[in-house]
Every structure is written in C-alpha cells, then in structure tokens.
Amino acid sequence: APHYDFADFEARWHERWEDQKLYQVDLQRAQRPYYNLMMFPYPSAEGLHVGNVYSYVGSDVHGRLMSMQGYDVFEPMGFDAFGIHSENFAIKQGIHPRILTARNVERFRELQLKRIGNRFDWSHEVNTTDPEYYRWTQWIFLQLFKAGLAERKAAPVNWCPKDKTVLADEQVINGHCERCGSLVERRWLEQWFLKSTNYAQRLLDNLDALDWTERVKSLQRHWIGRSEGLEFQMAVDGIPDQHVQVYTTRPDTIFGMTFVALAPHHPLVAAITDPVYQKAVIAYQEQVNSLRSSPDDAMTGVFTGMYTPHPFTGERIPIWIADFVLEGYGAGAIMGVPAHDERDFAFAQQMHLPVRQVVQSTDTTISAETPLTETFTSTGIVIDSGEYSGLTSEQAHNAICTWFEAHQSGQRSVKYRLRDWLISRQRYWGPPIPIIYCPDHGAVPVPEDQLPVLLPEAEDWMPTGTGVSPLAAIESFVHTTCPICGQPARRETDVSDNFLDSAWYYLRYPSSTDQQHAWNPEITRRWLPVDMCVGGADHSVLHLMYVRFIAMALHDLGHISFSEPFSRFRANGTITMAGAKISKSKGNVINPDDYLDYLGADAFRVYLMFMGPYEMDGDFTDRGINGVVRFLDRIWQLVTSHTGSWPERPLEGEERRLLHLTIKRVSEDTPVFKYNTAIAAMMEYLNVLERKPEQTRQDIETLITLLAPFAPYITEELWARLGHSDSVHAVSWPGYDADALQQESMILPIQINGRVRDRIQVASDTPEDAIKQQAMVTEKVQKFVAGHHIAKVIYVPGRLVNIVIN
Ligand code: ANZ
C-alpha cells in the first residue's frame, strides 16, 4: 500500500470538487464543447467489475487531457437499469426489480463510481428506468412506427427457455443465449421488429469514413454481411405451377449442383413434398422445432421425394429440406454444391449425395483427375460446365447471371446477413411497447401526450414461460380504449428490448432535465455528435450497431442533424484473468472495491493504465502494482520532504531538453491512448529528477501537471501543497519547445600521440564507446593510423580523444 494517506485527501478533494462544481460545464454557453462518452453500466448486484473500471478510467484520462487542453468537456454517467440482467438477478434474490435496481444504482454511484476519480458531471445523470426517460424511449418507438420502421409480424424467433423470452439474433452466440448460456429454441411468435435492414447499405457504407477502432468496424462489416449473387428459379418436376427460388453467391459452380435444399419451414415445403415422404418431413420439422442443433452437431435433413431439373443439363436434382439452410436468409433455399462449399460437402457426405467438381485451381499442379477429398472453395477455372468450361470463375459468374436474366428466370441480387431487430420481450422489467390493439383499427399508437405508458406495479412480475409477458395478467393495465374510436381495446403487453434504451442515452444526457423534448434542439446542435466514445468491443454488433441505426433513422425523420452518433470510438481492451474474460456470468470477478480500499484510486488507476496498451487485451495480475505504488510514493516524497521554497531559475541545456522531451512524449502518447508509454515517460523523468542535485519548481510542477489526468487526487493534493489555490485540473496542459529538444553537442579534438589531428562533433550524451568509434573512422585519423598498431584509445570526458599508435 502507498505510504501517503490517500483516504484522507481523496475524500477531501472529492467533496471540494463537487462543491465547486469543478466538472460541470455550462452546456448553453460552452465555447469549445467536447462530449466525452463512456458506456453506462448495468447496475447489477455484483457491482462494478475491474473491466468497467478499466474502461471508465481510460475514458476519463482522455476527458481530463482534453479539458486541460482547453476544451469544455462534458463527461456524464448514468444507468442502463432495465432489462433481463437486472431482472434475472431480482428473480434470484426474490426481490422486486424496482427495489433491487434502485438499491444497486445507489450503491454503484455512491460507493463505486464516485471513488474511481472520474470527472463525472452527476447533474446530468440518466436512468433508463425513470419514467421521464422511458417516456422518450416509447416516443422514439412511435416515431419509428409512424414512419413504417416498426412492424409487427409472425416470425420464427430465438426463444430462450431459461429467460423465457425471445432474443434478437445479436443476442444469440453460437446458438446460445448471450445472457444465461442456455441453448436457444425456435418458436413462431408475433413480434415487433425495427427495420434495421432498411439501413444495411448505409450502415456499411458509413463505416469507411468513421474514425472508429478498426476491429469494431470489421466486425460490423461482417455482421452486416453484404453479398452479391444470383437469385434464380427452379422448376419442380410434376408440379408445373410451383417454383423454388434459390440464392447463390457462386453461380460459376452451378454445374456442380447435386442437390437443392430448403429451410425446414420454407413455405413451399408442404406444397412440394411427395405424399409418401410427408410423414418423415413433418417429423423432421417437429424435431427441428423442439431443439435447435448447435452448429458443431452433425448435419440433419430429410428428402422430400421430389426433383428439380437442372437449368442447363435438365438432370434430375433431388430436393431436400435441411436445417443448415436458414429461413430468413437469401431465398431460404440453396443449390447444393458439395465440391465447392463446406456445409454442402458435409451434408452430401452425411446423405451420400454425389460430389462433382466444376472449378479447378489455376495452379495446374492440382489436377482435376484426383478426386476431391475436401472442398475447393476458391475461385479458379470452370470445368465440365458445358459452354462455360474454360472461363474464369468471374467470367462464368457474369455469363451465367446474364443467361438467367435473358431467360427471365433469375436476376443478380444483393443480400445482407443483417436481420431486422426484434425488440419484443415477454418480460416485466422494461418499457411497455406503446401500442393499443383495437378490434376495428388494429395496432394503434398511444397518443404522444399520453406517454409514458407506465410500467404497472405488479406482484407477479416473474416471467411466465407461456409466450406472454407478466403484464398480460394485469387486467387494469391490459384493458383500455381505442384512441381512435373509444371502444374497448387491449394494450400491447410486451416490453421493449433493453438495447433500445441504450440506443439513444447519449442524446438524453445533455438534455436530461428537459421536460418538453427528448433532447433539446439547441443544446443538441452544440454538443452532438459525441466527440469520443470509449467502450468494450464486446458491444460491436450489439449496442454499437443499434445506436447507429437509431441515429440514422432519427436523422432521416428530421429529429437530429447528424446520422452517426459517435465521431470517434475507441475500444478498450478486454481484461482477462488467466485467459478467461472477466465477467459476472463466469464468476471470476475481481472486486475493484478491494483495490480502491487498499491502494487508493490513484495507484489503481495508474496501475490499470500501465498494464499494457489501452486498446489491447491483457491479463489482470497483481504483478507490477508495487512498481506503480513506489512511483507515486516517490513523487509524494520528493514534494513533501522539500523544505524551504523551490528554486525558480530557468532550466538550461540537458535538464531543459529532458523536461521538454518528457512533455512531448506524454503529449503525443496520451491522446492516442498509449497510456502505458506515457506513464513510462513520467517514470523515467522522475528518475532524472531524483538524481538532480536540486529540483526546480518548473521540474516538479510539470511532472504533476502531466500526471494529473492519470492520478487526479494525489496531483491535486501536491499542487495545493506547492502553494496553489486553483485546481491542477484547471491548469493548461504544458507545451514543449521544439528547439529545446535539440541535443546539446560538443566538439572534441582528436589527438594522435598527443598532437591534434582532427575534430568531431557529437551529441553530449553520446556514450564513450560510440565516441571512440567515431574518432577512429574520420578520414584524417585513418590516414595517420594506416600501417600502425593502435596501442590505446583514451577518452577524456567532454575534453578530447587521444589515440596512441606505434
Ligand atoms: C452455391 C454455392 C457454391 C455457394 C459454392 C457457396 C459456395 P454469403 O456469402 O454468406 O451470402 N446460402 C444461401 N442462402 C442460404 C441460406 N438461406 N441458408 C444457408 N446458406 C445459404 O453466402 C451465400 C452462400 O450461402 C450461397 O452461395 C449459398 O451457398 C449459401 F461453391 O450457393 B452458395
């Protein structure tokens, strides 16, 4: 533990900062607004974990730097307090989520977030469960509904049997619930969707110009999953009026098709199945319903008994149904080309279907004669494909697309993997979706002046498992009247996805006290979009995709002037413990409170920022904490042990150079989140200072100023002890003089056997060996020593080099 009494001055400064409103900006009048955002936490019962603190502190260092560089920095914090995670914990504890959430929020704010030393402006706190907040979440839903961007449809959905609710695709990880890990099932339910797919191309295109962490952008590109291919019709033998549409990205492989497969619940399955096979097909559909096989399981499927003629050869191709074919993607049906597609190959192996190679490597050493033992998924030269043989894959792709277009039985088509965002949740703890069902008028929006639709107090708030929310059992909530005709009507009883709450919170912070608008137009113009957002990359395709979609939609509907919410985004690294990500669900949570108690906020902050490059993942270990504690102890010692006044003489020469070099390094590394090397530069500088016979006021004050964003308390305390009455956090960031960085140089005479023969110019801190080496190689010296034996080279520091020859 540190030797200084951090507990004393942390509490004192925290209070002083709050009294002075040091971190509150005048949002109306700020001249150089800088919106510094971090992702607000779920106030779960376990409290903040070290990953949260890591993320928040790194973001705060950035905010503090920008503030010292002259910006009016707004750094708000709030609570993402609705949703399954909060509710699940309430279930475990048997405590009503409203009570538990309020308790946790209080604890997060008072006992944790206020201790980590961040410059939060608590006067703009938001809480998504506050009716004054979710009133606007509902309002946003209504704007989308009125614009046709919210739609109710029956769809096969991901159903989590444990959480007893549906999940969005983004919340299903490898077939399992993102929250509780249960294997997800498939159900048909009427659900509300937000039409994010309308924005697929823009979500993709805008990424190029966004200054965001590259790996997050690439995850988003992958998730949007744009592909260009061919959608074409295939006839069904014996059923002249039915066609199956298939989608392929590889029309060049069409001659290698040996089967066609439909998704298990493709609408045509019943119509095209041979009666003899019907029983087997229905049994298979039921099997698929009851449990969704995880992706590494064996391929399953069933033959329909029917065939389709190959569009070019007329060969009879069997039609199967198979669950590796996805319902909502492409056309929901595929042409199976086992030779050139991994999944098709696995399926063909399982079902004993032929494999027919039709693309060959341009690398001729691989012969088409050797039968394929694995798939050849690359492009190459097309073979055994009628008139297309000999073309490159690309040429064949084009020619075959053109053929289908000419025959009007297919067209080039662009598809996206992105799905519409399913936002209905059959749960209690969320904002009710503001819709009323009228027997005559259908789904009618709740009039805006009746918002919020309050979440009713309920005794029975536990998930029901029946496919409806607990709200459906609250008669007084359900029964209402139609806003259009006044006759009895029913309210929608599902609540909306917690990710809708967090898709717009950044808009609310600056306007958190505005009662008239979700966001005040004038303040929003001044402060948004967000200048810098920092958060975990684990939200790349969840929160960070939703927040972009909602901003685009609000922009198009005329509610905001920008369509990208975050000008810059940086993903902090994920902190792991011996390889496993630290998370509540894994149970390996390091309690930051212990570290705060034991080390104080400053040492914990500097330690976290010194562990490694901020944007890289890293292991959390206690190793290295001592070094950081010693560093702060030594600074404390240096300042507090000093007696009398500090010398104020101007710095000169090398001492000046080292000071400016340190400012330069810290100033360059800090804004680009290379916090570890910035700290290393300060550590080196402390070594220099300690060796100096006498430190000046400038030496000490510069070091304290540079350290202030990282260690806000100790620097404030030392700043005061140096005699300042203003805060170190209100001081301007120091600049450096480029000319001071020039290394001092000296001219050294070179003697040979005592007589001066040449001179060299070297930087004054050049090591002895290097000086001797340079002295030996000058042209003149070489001339004099040629043919002689060199007996000795003597360097008299700062004076001369003497070479002794014989
Ligand atoms: C034949 C083929 C041959 C294919 C080949 C690939 C390689 P992306 O790039 O992700 O868009 N596909 C199409 N619809 C599908 C669905 N509903 N469920 C599962 N798979 C589907 O992938 C497009 C490819 O994925 C398509 O091209 C199709 O397989 C498959 F050598 O068609 B391909």
UniProtKB/TrEMBL annotation:
Residues 221-404 form the Leucyl-tRNA synthetase editing domain. It is an enzyme of class 6 (ligase). A motif ('KMSKS' region) lies at residues 581-585. Residues 13-216, 418-615 form the Aminoacyl-tRNA synthetase class Ia domain. Its main location: cytoplasm. It catalyses: tRNA(Leu) + L-leucine + ATP = L-leucyl-tRNA(Leu) + AMP + diphosphate. GO terms for biological process: leucyl-tRNA aminoacylation. The keyword Ligase applies. InterPro entries: aa-tRNA-synth_I_CS, aa-tRNA-synth_Ia, Leu-tRNA-ligase, Leu_tRNA-synth_edit, M/V/L/I-tRNA-synth_anticd-bd, Rossmann-like_a/b/a_fold, tRNAsynth_Ia_anticodon-bd, Val/Leu/Ile-tRNA-synth_edit. GO terms for molecular function: aminoacyl-tRNA deacylase activity; ATP binding; leucine-tRNA ligase activity. Keywords: Aminoacyl-tRNA synthetase, ATP-binding, Cytoplasm, Ligase, Nucleotide-binding, Protein biosynthesis. The keyword Ribonucleoprotein does not apply. It holds the Pfam family Anticodon_1. Signal peptide: none annotated. Its EC number is 6.1.1.4. ATP binds at residue 584. It is found in: Cytoplasm. It comes from the Bacteria. GO terms for cellular component: cytosol. Residues 658-770 form the Methionyl/Valyl/Leucyl/Isoleucyl-tRNA synthetase anticodon-binding domain. Belongs to the class-I aminoacyl-tRNA synthetase family. NCBIfam families: leuS_bact. This is Leucine--tRNA ligase. It comes from Dictyobacter alpinus. The gene is leuS_2.
